Structures are given as structure tokens and as C-alpha cells.
Amino acid sequence: MFVLYPLVKLGIDSFSTGDGLSNYAAVFESAAGRKALITTVIGSVIVAVLAVGIGGICSWYIRSTKSTFARIVLWLAVLTPFWMGTVTKNYAIVLLIAENGALNQLLDVVGLSGLDLLYTPTAVLLGMVYTMVPYAAVSIYGALLTIDDSLLSAARSMGASRARIIRTIVLPLAMPGIVASTALVFAISLGFYVTPVLLGGAQTPFMATFIQDRILTFFDYGVASAASVVLLVIAIVILGLVVALVGRERLVRAIA
Amino acid sequence: MRLSPRTSDRITRIAGFVTVTLAAAFLLAPVLLTAVLSFSNDPYFGVPPDTWGFRQYETLFTDQIWRDALMLSLKIALPVGLLSAVIAVPAVFAIHRSRLPGRNVLHVGGLAGIIIPISAFAVAMYGVLADFGLLGTYAGLVLANTVLALPLMLVVTSAALSRIPVELELAAMVTGASRARAWFGITLRLLAPAMIGGFVLAVVTSFDEAVFINFIGGPGLTTLPKAILDSARLGVDPVIMAVATLLMVATSILMILALKFARSTDE
């Protein structure tokens, strides 16, 4: 109830402040709103694919490697972003990609020209992927654990190559988990706030910063709530689709 | 051209290894970088630093701003942990042990807090708190953070409770324990480690919260994450590296503790 009441009220407010659909019109008709929406949705798709890709490969390695050392290092790597504070991890990425940051110093040493990544959409995506990899890895790892080892050794003994085992056994069996995890990462990515603020700067339009500007700079709660509802609806539609596709249990398991 | 299985195996293995190594480097680099740079003695940011030492830590501990922010964060996080425990425990019993109509709604609603876009949620909280005149107040922040931390508490305690057989409680009652005694003595006792784990998770979540505070906080309410964010927005202040390093160490310890407690119910 604590969670749902604010959301329902948000929906009602988005219509009742101002007249009817005017708040939604303001979101879709303003160039800033449209641009923010498009950047956010496309960005979240990219983040979901990359995070699930990286997280998936890492969790497969954790599942299949025989070296305890590799397993520990990988778990550590995968869980680190999760354990760093929200603000501190984004700040750490600033240190990495800033104009005089570590990455550019490194490039300088090997004789390459520096990159100007900070305050670009790429920087925001980098930060978001960094945050989301643990979510993807942990939830896909859960799906991979359910795959029976004997299937894999059977395939191997009959001469299937690694790539083929992964393509024909692991991927199809893990697919529901992968789909659930992609949807989850996508939905969470829509709402990112700290990353766009710190890594995106003023030029990179994301919904979270758009919404905050409406509320705190223009005191336009109506438009902000309409924009929030748009985000919510996108998230709910995607999550709903996934529930229809792979079942509610999968999604709940991906979260927990 | 068709590759022999062995060659293709080798290619897959090498490609996989390279990808995983790069991924691990990408995931670990920011932490290591922050931790190492926090021992820079320069008053400005630079890689590599010109001098090394504890200057950033000294500034951190002597500066009133950081101390106030830390105190406020603690003053919010601890009540949030307690409050979410007080709400979550009856809620998980309602979900698992009753036939209450709408218990599924309760479950989904609890989880929704984790997956819905946080900034949309923040606007919703803004609307609600504005109605009650709680915007920019300490009480409002505690309330909003509780809503955020509650799902974690729910997930942890609910997983633990589903593993405690209801028969234990019934057996106690059959052998003469009162209902209250059976409940407190058996079920709640078995649930306690998960509750502590959930409490720590809730406290950490609230302590780390940096989105709500920007929407519903106000002047005079600067939590630690907000202080870092404000400072980082203005530029790269080397003191933040010290804050970040200490926070990382503290969170890691707490999270490991929380996981230990949450898991100990398994056995």
C-alpha cells in the first residue's frame, strides 16, 4: 500500500493538475521532453543489452570455470558496483574518464590521443551499464544454475564444440531468465537519476533530469507527474510483456 | 571455411577469456582507482598524484559539513531500518500464512519498489508528501526512505519465512505452548537472522539514497550522498575520494554481514 498509493496518486495528479491531457501534451510537444524521452528509452535498451551481455558472460564463466581463483575474482568484480554507493560509483567513473583522468593518462602513455568522454551520452551509458551489471549477472546466474550439468557433459562427449554447446543448450535453457533480466534492467534504467546528473552534465537530456527540472526549477508538478507516468507506463508495459512471455515466477525470481 | 571443433573451441575460449577479463577490469577499475587516489596529498585532482598522504582524510574528519551530513544520514537510516522491520514482519506473515484476499497484491506491491523507475517514484513521493506538508522535512525523508527500503526487507524475510515449516509452530502448540509463545519462541526466533539481515540492507539502502533526497529534501537537509553529489557536481574535489573509500569499506562490511545473516536461515 505504501508503494502503490503514491503511484496511483501520481496517475491521478497527472490528469487533474491543469486540464486533462494538457500535461501530457506539454511533455510530448516540447522538444526537450521528446528528446529526453527518446534518449532515455534508447539508452535504457542499450544499457539492458550491454549489461545483460556482460553480466551473462561473467555469470557463465563463474558457473563453468574450474578455477576457484577466477570464480572469486569474478564474483568480486560483479558485486563491486553493487556494494559501492550510488553516488560514489558514479564519481569513481568521473575519475576514470575525466579529461585528466586515469583512462586518458593511460592512453597518453601508450601514445593515443585522449578521449573527451565526460558529459556525453556515452559517459552516462557507461555509468548505467556499470551499475546494472550486478543485477543482470546475479539474476542470470540463478537461471544458469538450473541447467543440468549432465546435459553439458553429454553434449561434450558427443563432440559438440563449446560454441555449439552454448548456442544450442545453454542459451535456449537460460533464455527465459535472460529475457526477465533484460526487462528488469531496462525498467530500472529508465529512472536513473544520479548517473545522468554526474556523468551527463547539462547537455545530455535524460528523463530524470527533465522531470527534476520541471519540478524544482519550474515548479510544474503537473508536467513532471505526466512525464513520470509516461516512464512508468513504459516500464509496466515491458514488464507485463515479459510476465506474459516467461511467467510471473521468472520475473520475481530475477528480482530476488 | 569450416573450422575443426578444436580450433573453434580454442577461439571461443580465448574470446570468452578476453571478454571476461575486460569486463572484470571495467568493473574493478573505478573502485581501485578511487581507493588509491584517496591517498593523494594534492589539493587538486590529478592522475597520478604528485604527493601521497592522509590529507584528504584529515580534511574529511575536521570539516563540519561532512560530519553533519554523516550524522543526518545516520539519523535517517536507523529509524528507516526499524520502521521497515516493524512493517515488513506482519506483512510477510500476511503473505505466507494467511488466506487474506489481496495478499498477492501485497507481494507484487512490495517488489514494485525495486523495479519501477526511481525518478518517477520520486515524483510520486513528492506529490504525496506535499499533500501532507512533509516536503523538506525530516519525517518526510524517513517515510520516503522506508518505502524504498521496505521491499528489500520483504524479500529477505519472506524468503526466510517460506523455509520455516508451519508445522513447527503447530507442534509447539500441540505440545502445550500458547499461541503467542509458539509464535515468539519458534517462528520469530527462526526468522530473527533474516530480520537482522534485512535491517542492515534497509539501513544501507537508506544511507545510500541519493534520488529522493534531491526531490523531497530541502535546505538544511543534506545527507551524505547529497553532500557528495553537490560537491561532485561542482568539480572534482579530492576529499570525495576519501569519503567514497570509507563508504565502500563500510558498505562492504555491512553487506557481507547482511548476507551472512540472511543466509544463516538456510541451514
Give a written overview of the molecule.
The complex is a heterodimer of chains A (256) and B (267). Chain A is built from 13 helices and no strands. Chain A is mainly alpha-helical and 256 residues long. Chain A has one domain (4-255): MetI-like (MetI-like fold), CATH 1.10.3720.10. Chain A is globular, with a radius of gyration of 21 Å. The two termini of chain A are 20 Å apart. Chain B starts with a helix and ends with a helix. Chain B has 267 residues and is mostly helical. Chain B has a single domain (59-264), classed as MetI-like fold, CATH 1.10.3720.10. At the A-B interface, helix 1, helix 3, helix 4, helix 5 and helix 9 of A face helix 1, helix 4, helix 5, helix 6 and helix 10 of B.
In short:
The complex is a heterodimer of chains A (256) and B (267). Chain A has helices at residues 4-16, 22-29, 31-64, 68-83, 86-97, 102-109, 121-145, 149-157, 162-190, 194-200, 207-217, 221-246, 248-255.
Largest sheet of chain A: none
Task: Look up the CATH topology of chain B.
Answer: MetI-like fold
Mean model confidence by pLDDT of chain B = 82
How many DSSP E strands of chain B?
A: 0
Residue-averaged pLDDT of chain A, rounded? 84
Q: Helix- and strand-based class of chain B? A: mainly alpha
Radius of gyration of chain B: 24 Å
Helix content of chain B: over 70%
Which regions of chain B have little confidence, pLDDT < 50, spanning 5+ residues?
none
Query: What characterizes the major β-sheet of chain B?
Result: none
Rg over C-alpha atoms of chain A, rounded to the nearest angstrom: 21 Å
| Biggest chain-to-chain interface with counts | A-B, 79 and 76 residues
User: What is the CATH homology-level superfamily of chain B?
Assistant: MetI-like
The CATH class assignment of chain B is: Mainly Alpha
The helix content of chain A, as a percent range, equals over 70%
By CATH, the superfamily of chain A comes out as MetI-like
How large a portion of the residues of chain A is in β-strands, by DSSP E? under 5%
CATH architecture of chain A: Orthogonal Bundle
Global outline of chain B: globular
Domain tally of chain A = 1
